[in-house]
Write a structure and sequence with these properties.
It contains 3 helices and 14 strands. It is α+β, with helices and mostly antiparallel strands. It has a single domain, classed as Copper Amine Oxidase, Chain A, domain 1 (2-Layer Sandwich), CATH 3.30.457. A 5-stranded antiparallel sheet has the order 3-2-1-14-13, with helices on one face. Strands 6-7-8-9-10 form a 5-stranded antiparallel sheet, with helices on one face. 26% of the residues are buried. About 10% of the residues have low confidence.
């Protein structure tokens, strides 16, 4: 005997899907970046969410920190915030280079080198001189937040009183 799906079961499934989308926006790794991510200096959690909507806290094992008036964030968490999938974060131990790929956009950083390489499409990379080089802290590669986020076309804002860096998409849910 076949089970017929009732209107009640359909309604329940829709309610659950909407609730998951609202309360767990970062769970679907295939989705676009949510419009706002907040990293607070010294905090081992960052906030992911919408300006006037639900917020999800994500735990980190190394807190963002200030160096030369710039915020450095562990690459793993910065990549997740930029919706770069884990398999698109490539670490080359020999050169101490980390490369992040998202669609056609690719940015590459080398520990100790203040030059970011940025590719969009098959053209030669654009070399961007940063005012701070990536570094290793507590066995984690940390990147200057502004340079990495702007490398993918995101908007970045610093809130000095909150000691918080805010990374936002340009309104369409995507940075690039």
């Amino acid at each position: 005997m076949k089970h017929r799906v009732t209107k009640r079961e359909i309604a329940l499934a829709l309610v659950l899907a909407v609730a998951c989308a609202l309360f767990f926006p970062g769970v679907n790794r295939g989705s676009a970046m949510v419009p706002e991510v907040r990293f607070r200096v010294g905090s081992t959690a960052y906030a992911v969410g919408y300006q006037d909507g639900p917020v999800m806290l994500v735990r980190m094992d190394v807190a963002p920190y200030l160096r030369s008036s710039r915020v450095l964030i562990p690459v793993r968490f910065l990549a997740q915030a930029l919706d770069v999938h884990d398999e698109d974060v490539i670490w080359e131990e020999k050169n101490q280079t980390v490369t992040l790929k998202k669609g056609e956009a690719v940015v590459s950083f080398t520990v100790g080198n203040p030059v970011m390489e940025k590719w969009v499409g098959p053209a030669a990379p654009e070399l961007v001189v940063m005012d701070l080089a990536p570094e290793i802290t507590n066995d984690r590669v940390c990147l200057p937040a502004r340079w990495a986020a702007e490398g993918f076309g995101c908007q970045v804002r610093w809130e000095p009183f909150e000691m918080t860096v805010i990374i936002r998409s340009k309104g369409d849910g995507e940075c690039e």
